Each structure stands twice: as C-alpha cells, then as structure tokens.
Amino acid sequence: MSPSAPNILISGSGIAGSVFAFWLLRAYPSANITIVERSPSLRLTGASVDIRSSAVDIIQSMNLEAEIRRNCTGEKGLSFVRSDGSPIATLGATGRTDVQTITSEFEIFRGALASIFMNPIKARVKLIFNESVADFHQDEKRDTVDVTFATSQQTKTYDLLVAADGVFSRIRSKILHSSDPREQVRDKGVHVAYFTIHKDLLHGQYAKWHNDTRGRAVFLRPDPHPSGRTRANLMIISSPEDVERKARLDRALSEGNESYMRLMEEYFQDCGWLSQEVLAGMRESEDVYCSPQAAVRSPVLHSGRVVLLGDAGYATPGIGTSLAIIGGYVLAGELLRRPDDFGAALRQYEGLMQPFVGNNDGAGGQAMQYLNPQTAWGIGVRDAVLREMGFIMWSGVAQLVLSVVVWSGWKEKKLAMPAYPWPTVKA
C-alpha cells in the first residue's frame, strides 16, 4: 500500500460511505476509492432524517450547511393532535443546533441528503451498481483483503474494506462468525410504513402526530413539493408483552409490501383523525417502504482490514444519520493520523465510536412507549403532561426540558474528537 494512495473498497453508497469517501479524499487526494452498490442506481428516496450533535460541526466543515438548509423540508415543529385534529400541544423547533427537539434544525429527506454528500465525490470515485461483496479473505502477511464480488464474480485486492452496507450487513456477520445478520439487531418493538401521499393533508409547516389505543400512531410531516404532498408514517408500537402482534408484523414484513399494507388497513380501520385518508393515500403511493425500527450494536467495529461504518456497526433510531456522518469523519481522520499503521487507526476509530454510540440510544424503546401509550388511560395521562407543558411551550426552559425528556437531551453528547490535521484545500 502507498500511504499517499490507499486502495479502498466501500460496500454501500449511502450517507456513511459517501461522507467517509469525502473526508478520505481530503486526507489522501490520490486515494483509489471504489463504491459498490447493490441497487441499480443511487437510492434517492426515503423518509425525513435529521442532523444532530457533532454531525452539525462536520457538515459545517464540509461547507455543506447552506446547501443542506436550502433542501430542508421547512418543518417548523410538531403538534400532537386529538381525533378531531385539535391540538393537544405543539413543540416547535428551537432555532438552535446545540439543543434540538423532535423537529431538527436540519429536517431533510434522506434522498436529498444522500445526493448532497455524493455530488462532491462522484467524479473522483469508481461507483459500481448492481454489485455487492459476496466474500472476502484477509492476507495478514500483505495487510490486504481479497474481495470476491457477487455479480461479476471477480476477486480484487484492497488495502481496506469498509462495510457501509446497512443494518443487515453480511460483512458484519462474516467478521463476527455469525450465520444470520439479524443476530446483532436489537428490536425496538416499532414497525413503520413510510410513504408519500399526493395530497397536502397538513396545510402548513407543522408535522402532526395522532395516537390511538393499542400503540397505533399516525405521523404526518410536510413536504415542500409545489404540487402539494405529505410524508406519512403509520406506526405500530408493540409492548414487550405483545409477542403475537409483533410476530404478525414481522411475518408481514418478510412477505412484502402488499402483506404489510393489508395488515395496516386491518389495524388502522377504526383509528381516528385522518387515518382513512392516509390509508387511501398509502394505496396510491409509489414509494411505500416498510421497516422495523431496530438498533445494531456490534461488539467489534473492525477485524484486520475490514471495518464497520454507520448502520452496519451502530444503527440507532432517531440519530442514525448523525452517527453515520460522525463515523465517516472519524474513520477518515484516524486513517489520516496514522498513514503507516491502518491497524492502529482502526483501533482508535473503534475506541472513539463505541463508547459514544453506547451513550446515545436515540429514540429508544422507552421513549417510544412513553410517546405512544397502549391504552386510552395512558394516552390521557400523556396528553395531560403535554398540555401542562403547553402553557410554557414557547419558553426556552420548556424547549430544553422537552428536548431532554423526549429526545434524549443532545446538548452534552458531542464526541470529543482529536484535531485531525486535514490538508488545506486549494481554492
């Protein structure tokens, strides 16, 4: 390996992989980077994501903050609403980046953010679609990894294999000697159908959240598209005791979108507010995506010259995008600090990321159970708390308290990163 021109393979063209490639090219302008993507093209769809914690500092360092803000959804806050649509309480955005509520300062659709991160690098990397890693073997004497590809069946040698291949990473399974990628996935008891409705159901820039009994929630978010659209989430939050319903949801997910949509129609047929319009919009939507909210906590983040990045190593509902950005930056920074010792760089990356990830559980199971009670009595208690908070909702104290209680309190949770010696970028 030439320290000035490492030969790197990234499995997955999502946010984690593209942020890592951006910073690696800053560290090593002559780096040879190949990105393989299982899909036939860049995946530019997806629900709203946000940017928090140290990830805000990183997008500022990338000079991408202004572009990201231009592409944000315009969401100003969130209203919890009753069956008739009347508000229980409204939680606005804070206008700050160090303390954020459920509505971030950077609410942006995943596809838009992925494009923003990919655009600066796509002419400088080799991007291969319809391809993935079938197998790999490490050569300890040469400090390299031989990768066999699934489609071409070719085998090529790299200095580093970066697994940015998502929650169900097969590369993670192999380095952990596991036969099933699901073994490292922690179920949060939350199942969601995401889709775009071709109608403006909100008539404004505030998202709305309605709860009904049995852990059912309808969550609508604004879409700035000029034709008038709404981004919808149908959520089922299962209690730990509700094993049978969770099994039905998992089975429907495995069978595909049609089975899952039929189950949503069954579960939400007697739900209040705009549920019937949302169900009708689901049937007319072209981008229905159904998924459990799940976390990944891999016990290790690297093995030899193979390293896990983003969701492959530490998927976290609510803050996964931010962790992917942070992880990409730290991995490239550590490779910059130790150009002649990639092993030490990977150990330091793991040493920084694992404790930080462990202290940031995002919108975890407890928070989702609190926000989405199973019974009418529980919903009433939650609403009473929200109404009381509503009296002081617009004060800075209320915003801070709610961001701590509802969204894990990000203010204290930045990653203490080394000052990486990034080369100066020529104007």
UniProtKB/TrEMBL annotation:
Pfam families per UniProt: FAD_binding_3
Keyword annotations from UniProtKB, A to Z: FAD, Flavoprotein, Membrane, Oxidoreductase, Transmembrane, Transmembrane helix
Classification via SUPFAM superfamilies: FAD/NAD(P)-binding domain
All copies of domain FAD-binding, residue ranges: 8-317
Keyword Repeat: no
Molecular function, one GO term: FAD binding
Transmembrane segments: 391-410
Database matches in Gene3D superfamilies: 3.30.9.30, FAD/NAD(P)-binding domain
InterPro entries referenced in this protein's UniProt entry, alphabetically: FAD-bd, FAD/NAD-bd_sf, FAD_aromatic-hydroxylase
Ranges in coiled-coil conformation: none
Name of the protein this chain belongs to: FAD-binding domain-containing protein
